[in-house]
Amino acid sequence: MVSVEAYAAWRGISEQRVRELLRAGELSGRRVGKSQWEVDDVAFAARPRSSRPMSPRMAWALIRMMSGEPLGNVAPSERSRLRSKLLKLQSSQDPAALLSAWLKSRGERKAFSIAPQDLDDLEADDRVMRSGISDPRSGISSGDKAELWVRNGERLNSVIKDYLMIPDPKGQVILHSGGNHPDPVAPIGLVLADLADWNGPRENGKVAELLAASL
What we know:
By secondary structure, the chain is of the alpha+beta class. The protein folds into three domains: 2-43; 56-102, no CATH class; 107-214, no CATH class. Helix content is 41%, strand content 14%. It contains nine helices and eight strands. The protein has helices at residues 4-11, 15-24, 56-66, 76-91, 95-102, 119-124, 156-162, 188-196, 201-214, and strands at 2-3, 29-32, 36-39, 108-113, 128-130, 146-150, 166-167, 173-177. A hairpin with a 3-residue loop joins strand 2 (29-32) and strand 3. 39% of the residues are buried.
């Protein structure tokens, strides 16, 4: 189930309109409490990702722009293209699909298995920062999974070695690497990009919700 707010942002319609559809039975969902509703996950259908990826430099520039951070050495014409991307995100019914396609080049994403008793220590390691489903702003964090960025890409192998991490497509740790990240907290644009790559109803809904709140 996803919130009315997330579904409205994803579809580009008002929350009032979503509630009207739910009450009329034209949208599948359930009532939570006396006046709140949730929308069925099936409303967030899987979608193709057809947009071309941006270059690594421009992908990170878009992440910084979404996060309200300085863009650095970006030409005026490039800034204009980035602003057009933001406008397209704001008007899209599926911004997660666009983000996942555009920002593929921001770094590597790999899954690993780790001893369950080491998971807390890994998340507290100052070589990594939480993002995606592990960032508190996502509201998705669970105790048995972690999504992290290695803050300095050159330390990736040492983190894997120190925690005896084993490559595993179904592992409980998603580890991203690429670039250097001096701050211990992930920029919101990066959190959005990481959530978008899950392509799940909860994650897609959170992308739409957080994007609407941050832009």
